[in-house]
Amino acid sequence: MCGIVGIVGQTPVAPLIVDALKRLEYRGYDSAGVATIENGELARRRAEGKLVNLERRLKNEPLDGMIGIGHTRWATHGVPNETNAHPHFSNGVAIVHNGIIENFAELRQELKGDGYEFTSQTDTEVVAHLIARELARGVKPVEAAHVALKRLNGAFALAIMFASDDNLIVGARNGPPLAIGHGEGEMFLGSDAIALAPFTNSVTYLEDGDWAVVRRDEFQVYDIDGKPVERQRRQSVGSSYLVDKGNHRHFMEKEIHEQPEVISHTLAHYLDFTQGTSKPLDLPFNFADIDRLAFSACGTAYLAGLVGKYWFERHARLPVDIDVASEFRYREMPISKKSAAFFVSQSGETADTLASLRYCRKEGVPIGAIVNVRESTIARESDVTLPTLAGPEIGVASTKAFTCQLSVLAALTIRAASQRGTITADEEQALVRSLSETPRYAAQVLKLDKQIEKVARDLSHYKHVLYLGRDTSFPLAMEGALKLKEISYIHAEGYAAGELKHGPIALIDENMPVIVIAPHDRIFEKTVSNMQEVAARGGKIILITDRKGAAQATVDTMETIILPDVPEFIAPIIYALPIQMLAYFTAVFMGTDVDQPRNLAKSVTVE
Ligand code: F6R
Description:
- The chain contains 20 helices and 27 strands.
- By secondary structure, it is α/β, with parallel strands linked by helices.
- The strands form five sheets. It has an eight-stranded antiparallel beta sheet with strand order 3-2-4-1-10-9-11-15. The protein has a seven-stranded antiparallel beta sheet with strand order 5-6-7-8-12-13-14. Strands 19-18-20-21-22 form a five-stranded parallel beta sheet, with helices on both faces.
- It binds fructose -6-phosphate.
């Protein structure tokens, strides 16, 4: 989940590396560092905490050098301090690493036995020493790197630099992504194409097991056996602009506000609003020939998939098995040959989701990816990519990617239902029409910001919050709780409202507000009963509903947030907005780091 960068350039590279790291800071922000080669010697600056600390350090103590590597860290092994910050050095070898070296303990023992001293608690430092040991044995740099790579188990993207050669970076990939950027007389390496966007949009992605020798005017990719391999050079798209906050205080606020527009773009990609139909998709199967779907994803993307399950089962009469990817990948689930599998991911790089995809690949079922980053590994390893057109999402807490994932899943449901004949042409038109209204309703919800901000002010005084919902509002309850806990650090849980009496009701008192997500739908009455159970025990209710729901709720609430009356099908998309806004404003009142909350990273490339 760290971000890595390397540049073999023609001007001093440290400022360029910092610029690239800024674009990778979403991957981790526990510490950062840069190393260059100055007069045949390695030189580095590292700093604990955010990238600004490294920038400050470099301002006072600049680095020269026309070749360099850089790193922004999400700590796995070793606390986030300067000593554990990358790059790590060993006798003329400098290294930055994203991932986890699983056999590091054994390698560390072995290297200590050979007299190597460890200055950090990281797993990464073993790689620097392994390479240095080969150099000490007289092996040339490129071969030394190759020998070391063969000793590593685990997940890694690496950039390796040698004091003895200021025209060489070795990159390697096994798991986390690594892209090579092609310039004019200069070359770049980066964890993703966004990092390299200011320098080049001509990119080669390494595949798992690949390693590459990168010099100013040439590069060569090899497989793990050292055999040269060809990898396609692509024009990277959509990443050439620097993302900024515009007039907003935080990226998260900006991204919440972008939703009417990006939902609209996403839906227009999949639906023909004039005809009232879903557009044909280039799927390698027909939904009519499928008797089961498997979905997998992590976190918010998983919760989008869970909403999708309700939709597919209800409208397309197609059973969906869904699991969080960290479970899916290991539970050896039998997959029917008449299935298709869909993986949902904003980044397209989440390690567990990718592993689940590979499991399904082995099972031989067709694979679709619902991803925001079109050039990501998950997209590239799928048979078909169904993009969410959310644009770059920078805030660590996912907002617009979630509603765009829901938009794709809704459109896909219509496609499936139409192919399977479980909806009539009129019903298809009605569903498409209801989706066409989503951007307008989303814009109306954004106007409730003053009321939601007021509720958030109250919420920020509590330590625990419970979210309840039924049907598609159940995944939303979990999403509300996830959003709140990750950015405000308030403990929150999301439950199916009907589960309340099976345990969580014991928690209800005046110190635990209960947020109920309940559009006036077929089962609204059931949720009202649950609210009564909460009220009877002195619980304070914040109800998110529509006009009819507010009129029929028959309980006293601490606050009722009334959303527009929306068709049932699109309610999960619309109701996602107030729960995002509630979490956002609460976090702002709590004074937390909204865009980069503690301990988290945007792209989780380790399991
Ligand atoms: C929560 C959040 C995470 C991600 C999860 C999956 O706000 O953003 O739960 O949804 O880490 O990430 P992707 O979608 O990149 O696979």
